[in-house]
Amino acid sequence: MPTPWRKYEILILMDPNLGTEGTEDLINRCRGFVIDAGGRMLKTERWGIRDTAFEVKRQKKAWYLLLEFAGEGSVATSMARQLNLLDVVIKFQAVKLAEGIDPSTLPEIEEQVSAVAPSKPPVLPDLIKDEEEEEEDEFAGEDEN
């Protein structure tokens, strides 16, 4: 009986100056890390260049990439080891999503998602009038006399 797999998600922040060709090269390398370790890629999301919450390795922006893959525990360990060796990777964080997955239930074809636009903050209605507007409203009725 084969060992049950685990499902992982990894967010990778890359050098924003890498360019399209460089990012595709890194995606293919990550795909190779997973497959060479005996795992399977499930999803690739290219988020594009975004601002970081704080400066990381003297960078205020980064190229964001989200990968979802499955395999034995050694797959995630191998991926982390390889990413630590790459200079273009600013930071990464891997999370285990599920455990005890049967490999035969996983999709054979990797899902591709590209350039998800960052969501804009909601626009709140202006509920409070400025003090000047309130004063104008108070004096508006006095001119009619």
Describe this structure in words.
This protein has 145 residues and is an alpha+beta fold. It has a five-stranded mixed sheet with strand order 4-1-3-2-5, with helices on one face. The protein is built from three helices and five strands, in the order βαββαββα. α1 packs antiparallel against α2.
CATH topology: Alpha-Beta Plaits
What structural category arises from helix and sheet content?
alpha+beta
Amino- and carboxy-terminal Cα gap: 94 Å
**Low-confidence blocks of residues:** none
- CATH-defined superfamily: Ribosomal protein S6/Translation elongation factor EF1B
Strands of the widest sheet, in order across it, are 4-1-3-2-5
Number of helical segments?
3
Total number of domains: 1
CATH class: Alpha Beta
Second rung of CATH, namely the architecture: 2-Layer Sandwich
Look at the structure and give the mean pLDDT: 80
Principal-axis shape equals globular
**What letter string, H or E per element, gives the SSE order?**
EHEEHEEH
DSSP summary, beta strand count = 5
Percentage of residues in helical conformation: 25-40%
Strand proportion: 35-45%
Largest sheet, in brief, is:
5 strands, mixed
- Rg for CA atoms: 24 Å
